[in-house]
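Researcher: Let's run the pair from yesterday's discussion. Sequence first, then tokens, for each.
Model: Starting with the first of the pair.
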Amino acid sequence: MTLEQVFNDKSVKAKGKVSMIGEWLLNGELPAEELMACAEKQKASDKATCIEAMEYATRKDASVADEALLSYVTLALRSEEPRIKWESAKVIGNIAKHFPDQLHETIPGLLNNASNPGTVVRWATAYALAEIIKLKKKYNEKLLPQIEQLAEKEEDGGVKKKYTDALKKIK
């Protein structure tokens, strides 16, 4: 079955598509570059499914990611589509430890989404930012005060907890 067939098959539910594509990434049947190229040709909901498949795969084995994937999800943070934003942030959270010195372009996009009106976008963003500050790199000098501010202003308990738990671990 090809990616196009997966997206056109109405008998396969969204979560089934995610796990099928994610498993293809994990077992090497589908190169990440091919999935990223396909995602760019899809409507927003299918593009989000592609990124969710990347999240599925990187959650199980973050080593499937490369710098091209990091660049791709960093750019996807700018999307208008909330699901694309949150799935991209989750991928970043999953793979940040593999690219500790390549996150300088990623951090501003995450900080921009940290004040998104959508709770799920903010939660996924908080997850990614929490994983980044746990790396204890030089960018924490500027990032930590911003994270502390975000935690203080955040009204949702789950989002706030992501920040506060990470802050406790690094202090």
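Model: Moving on to the second of the pair.
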Amino acid sequence: MYKDLQGKVAIVTGAATGLGKAIAERLAAEGVKVVVNYHSKNQGVEEMIKDIEEKGGSAAAFQADVTKQEDIKYLVEFASDTFGRLDIMVNNAGIENEVPSADLTLEDWNKVINVNLTGMFLGSREAIKYMLKHDIQGTVINMASVHDRIPWPHFVHYAASKGGVKMLTETLALEYAPKRIRINNISPGAIDTPINAEKFNDPKAKQEVIKLIPMGYIGKPEEIAACAAWLASSESSYVTGITLYADGGMTKYPGFQAGKG
């Protein structure tokens, strides 16, 4: 537990399911007042808020499209109006789809880039503007992927977006370090989330993924949420501009693990 997080206010985008849900729930358990952002209706958000409150936490839901700057502006205003301030911005919302690069349409390219990269920029920008205006030494956490480093055929738009998020994070961190606004990146590996459910329900496909992970298992959303809680806390007070790979060693060339090569 990070006692310094108690009473702080966070926004988590794309928090209805998967990693966003786990991060929102972990921050709430730490005593953070959490704004749960979601894109679509009927995603179980009300049940999530109720569960957080029954456990003694504070949370509120807000529907917004992360690709629309007015929506993000209203999201930040909602957090401030509801809980009085904004200390932590977690830009988590993201999408992916598999398409051979030669067949990838401009529409599909733009859709993924707009959510995964432009959405991160808009969320970071509005949070930073708020923190500067109110003299808050806050924290921005962006969610990238091991594919900001590992090429991923058939997912060129996704990999490109996540590579962009990494450099976006590093550039913003350098720019706002003098203001003590810390901006960091989490790059998860293979995690057991709904977006991966179909793949991991196939034992053969799951085993093929596990072969790429030196630690030998698929990660849990709670393990990524733990990274976010640490980066949000004062325990990481001297950390800015990093990419924290939470991937079981996937980025460490697993093919060479047994001395091969």
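Researcher: Give me one sentence on the second I can quote.
Model: The chain has one domain: 3-248.
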